[in-house]
Design goal:
alpha+beta; first zn-finger domain of poly(adp-ribose) polymerase-1; Herpes Virus-1; four-stranded mixed beta sheet; three-stranded antiparallel beta sheet; about 15% helix; rod-shaped; metal-binding
């Protein structure tokens, strides 16, 4: 082994087992036997060895470091053991700052259409402010996790109610807040919603208050409570009265 120990070495590969440690796309390809290769001394867990690459894969940065380390190519480890034409190749590369194009292996050349594509940078859409002219990032409306159910009430009671409400055929003495001194013979059938003295199709609640059928059904649909005493009331808890008995 000739030359000084500079951390770099050139030699002819003694087998085809070594893999190129140069830049892509040549990285990992085989260095053929008797091919000129360039080694960089590395330390792995206290053991030193060379990481090899094709001579054509030596970068301008490495050549610059070599020029800073020694002034004469003969100081490069292994240089004196090379053929004269290979010594000239190394000397020329040091002078020009890069290896000759013909020294670059085919495995290190990118194929047509494989040039590095510039990465697309994500851009945010900005909206110009009308007053100040400043650019502001448009904010997306936040989704609400809770949804409010919309309740719509029918303006008139469903037709199904006419057949679904129970009918009392016996005489009923309704509870009334109306004064017993009223002179109207129908005062006790007074509707507490429309104020009619005689309910139209009298309908009673479980709490004993009388209303017109249409008045109480519309009221319960809107608010399920008795309009008079606020007792909870549902449609199936209403009773239509048959006064013909």
């Amino acid at each position: 082994m000739s030359g000084k120990q500079t951390g770099y070495r050139v030699e002819y590969a003694n087998s085809s087992r070594a893999k190129c440690k140069g830049p892509k796309p040549c990285s990992g390809t085989s260095i053929q036997k008797e091919e000129l290769r360039f080694g960089t001394l590395v330390d792995f867990r206290g053991a030193t060895s060379f990481a090899w690459r094709h001579w054509g894969c030596v970068t301008p940065k490495i050549l610059q470091k070599m020029k800073e380390m020694f002034s004469d190519p003969s100081d490069l480890n292994g240089y004196d053991d090379l053929k004269a034409e290979d010594q000239e190749r190394i000397q020329k590369a040091l002078e020009e700052g890069h290896v000759a194009d013909e020294d670059i292996p085919n495995s290190a050349r990118k194929k047509e259409g494989e040039e590095d594509k510039p990465k697309k940078r994500a851009t945010k859409r900005k909206a110009a402010s009308d007053d100040e002219g400043e650019e502001e990032v448009a904010e997306k409306p936040k989704k609400s996790h809770s949804t409010q159910a919309k309740v719509t009430c029918s303006p008139s009671p469903p037709r199904l109610l006419e057949s679904s409400l129970p009918t009392l055929t016996t005489a009923v003495e309704p509870l009334s807040d109306h004064s017993e001194t009223s002179h109207s013979p129908f005062a006790r059938f007074h509707c507490r919603l429309c104020q009619a003295d005689m309910c139209n199709d009298p309908t009673a609640t479980m709490c004993g208050h009388l209303f017109c059928y249409r008045c109480i059904t519309e009221s319960v649909i809107r608010t399920p409570r008795c309009p008079t005493c606020a007792t909870p009331t549902l449609l199936y808890c209403l009773f239509r009265l048959d006064l013909s008995a």
